[in-house]
């Protein structure tokens, strides 16, 4: 029993150490903005590392990595890291049943505990990746919607002798403002790890709602604040071409990444919860059979 308790404590320290290390690295890079450029694998001149910043329309490995550790200003980095620390220290802690149901296999326990360092990497980095995928999917939907509008306008012309290229050019010029806002939304450089932080918040919301064994809970006031915040992010996230034109981006905040990151963290936490329960149940059965054999 002492061995399991020690193992759980070690994992808790490792997971929290990764969280604290992430906070320190973000603050350090904000103070030394050229630090990332000094890394050898970020200085390679290849197609995978062609752009410094990612956007909704294009993303590279380099831009995705840099977005996790760069921020617009000190207010941005301090608010993000404070929020990450406040939520992470409640999320990455052992559940009530982990000490009793810890798997006999070290690797199974490593991939089933909320205190595992892989859990932090799974939720923090995974939320950023899913946020980028979600925004890229929205960008693809907007392109398809625009192409559909162009095709419908092309077939609606009564003068069939007019070339299709002229019809498309006329429709594009007539809707130049909408096209410009779409391209700006797709190609504006994005910065900051807010999507990953919102992913941790989404994971915390899932735990508070669906995992009764985890000590991280949310009172009614915290739930209301979370619902209001996510509702605000959703209301500022464009879901169609018309919403891109109407919403705009006056505050220079990437609300789409925030909302997609929250959904990504919620989804990743649910997957981790299901797998952890499965592996803990398997570990409990294994110890039961060992006891019967003894």
Automatic annotation (TrEMBL):
Domain of life of the source: Eukaryota
One Pfam family linked to the record: Rhomboid
Segments forming a coiled coil: none
Transmembrane parts of this sequence: 12-29, 121-142, 190-209, 256-275
Gene Ontology CC: membrane
Domain Peptidase S54 rhomboid as annotated: residue spans: 179-271
Keyword field: Hydrolase, Membrane, Transmembrane, Transmembrane helix
GO MF annotations in UniProt: serine-type endopeptidase activity
Family: Belongs to the peptidase S54 family.
Name of the molecule in the record: Rhomboid family protein
Species of provenance: Nitzschia inconspicua
């Amino acid at each position: 029993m002492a061995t399991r308790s020690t193992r759980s404590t070690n994992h808790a320290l490792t997971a929290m150490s990764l969280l604290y290390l992430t906070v320190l690295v973000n603050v350090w890079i904000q103070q030394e903005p050229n630090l990332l450029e000094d890394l050898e694998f970020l200085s390679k001149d290849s197609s995978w590392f062609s752009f410094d910043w990612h956007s909704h329309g294009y993303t590279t490995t380099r831009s995705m990595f840099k977005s996790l550790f760069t921020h617009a200003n000190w207010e941005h980095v301090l608010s993000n890291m404070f929020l990450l620390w406040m939520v992470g220290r409640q999320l990455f802690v052992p559940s009530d049943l982990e000490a009793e149901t810890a798997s006999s296999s070290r690797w199974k326990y490593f991939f089933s505990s909320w205190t595992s360092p892989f859990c932090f990497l799974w939720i923090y980095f995974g939320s950023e990746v899913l946020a980028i995928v979600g925004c890229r999917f929205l960008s693809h939907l907007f392109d398809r919607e625009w192409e559909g509008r162009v095709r419908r306008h092309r077939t609606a012309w009564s003068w069939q002798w007019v070339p299709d290229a002229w019809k498309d050019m006329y429709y594009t010029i007539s809707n130049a403002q909408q096209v410009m806002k779409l391209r700006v939304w797709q190609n504006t450089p994005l910065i900051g790890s807010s999507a990953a932080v919102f992913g941790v918040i989404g994971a915390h919301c899932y735990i508070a709602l669906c995992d009764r064994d985890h000590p991280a809970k949310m009172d009614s006031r915290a739930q209301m604040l979370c619902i209001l915040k996510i509702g605000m992010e959703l209301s500022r996230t464009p879901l169609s071409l018309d919403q891109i034109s109407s919403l705009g981006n006056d505050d220079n905040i990437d609300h789409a990444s925030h909302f997609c990151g929250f959904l990504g963290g919620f989804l990743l936490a649910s997957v981790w919860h299901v797998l952890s329960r499965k592996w803990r149940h398997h570990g409990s059965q294994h110890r039961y059979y060992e006891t019967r054999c003894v």
